[in-house]
Amino acid sequence: MIDRLAEVAISDRQVSRITEEIGAEMARQRDLKTARFQAKTLPAAVAGIPSLAVVEIDGGRYQVRDPAVGSGPGAHGVGWKEDKFACLVTMTGTSFDHDPHPDLPRCFLDKKGVAKLIKGLTSQGSLNELTDGAGGDETPELTVFDATETAEPAPAWPPEPLVRTTVATTGDCDALGPMVAAEAQSRNFDRAPRKAFLGDGGKWIWGIQKAFFSKYTPIVDFIHALSYVYLAAKAVAASPAEHWETYLEWARACWQGNVEMVIAQLTVWRDRLGPLPSDDELPKTDPRKVVATTLGYLENNRSRMKYPDYRRAGLPTMSGLVESLIKQFNYRVKGTEKSWTLKNAERILQVRAAVLSEDERFEKHMENRPCPQFRRYEKTSESGEPKKYKKAG
């Protein structure tokens, strides 16, 4: 594209090297910010205080390979690995003295739409503990549901996003937590009068919330909760009609904050179906396993499923922003033809995170980075790293 649009002849290998170099610079800046946060010396980078600060966290997947120095051409030791992301968003919206949306949105009453939604989540591997389907090579297209879709004029809920910044890493949750906390502090999130932290229900996500965002309201993504009860209803139903009616009853109960009723009914079904066998040979779709898994999910997250309270406070109840963000990262890093060394994956994620952030950090970095105007790379070393560049001329 550089050749076609700018008529500048430059090899793709050179572009790759420069991109990795910029990514390494950004990774160092991120780690420096994180270190300053941990040392309690990180100032806020913005003066304003948001009225609503929202943090959403989730994980994705990409293919990693061994450097395989001296092993010949091609990718060696390729395998899937999880990368982790955070979406930090300021929002505008108001609180209410009543539930602004007590009825289950129409989008969750559409049989075909709900089935497509559940199929998309299982294809992504989001519900692997309930299905035998593994994540595909590419992220499937998912329908974007409008939670305010009703026959009446849309209410002032859910809140509208304003400015988004992102954090990404190939590291584990212990590495991600302080990175996200540093980003939140630099954006003055801690001073916001309303704060929300959303996730899909994974234990590692709530570990980060408790360690770094304990003053935020923890909210489990409603769509993931909906998916669990949908699959549990399917496991216990004797017919498609019974499946749909059971799903609607449980979905409405969760939406209206009555998750205890769903837990009670699932407990009855668990006792009726009988205990799980001691071995692990049951298929994931066995009704006993599906009911037990869904029951455990709801029991572990019941304190984070008070959706009427969240709506009255003007908070979001779905983590669609981070789900969409992961797909935008995947456009760059995920695919059967793409495999990364761990180091270069970390670097490319930083460039992508900067491009997807709405604070002009990529443009500012490119304007201010110290770099000779003219330079050339020497021959690539045996380790695959370019040797230090020299000024041309």
Map the helices and strands.
Elements (H helix, E strand, L loop, with lengths): L1 H5 L5 H27 L13 E15 L9 E17 L18 H13 L36 E10 L3 H14 L7 E6 L3 H10 L4 E4 L1 H15 L3 H16 L3 H15 L13 H15 L5 H6 L7 H14 L8 H15 L4 H8 L6 E2 L13 E2 L2
Parallel strand pairs: 1-4, 4-5
Antiparallel strand pairs: 1-2, 2-3, 6-7
Notes on the structure:
The structure is a single chain. The chain is about 45% helix and about 15% strand. By secondary structure, it is an alpha/beta fold. Helix 5 links the parallel strand 4 (about 195-200) and strand 5 (about 215-220). Helix 2 crosses helix 12 (about 340-355) and helix 11 crosses helix 12.
Question: Could you write a compact summary of the structure shown?
Answer:
The chain has helices spanning 2-6, 12-38, 111-123, 173-186, 203-212, 222-236, 240-255, 259-273, 287-301, 307-312, 320-333, 342-356, 361-368; strands at residues 52-66, 76-92, 160-169, 194-199, 217-220, 375-376, 390-391.
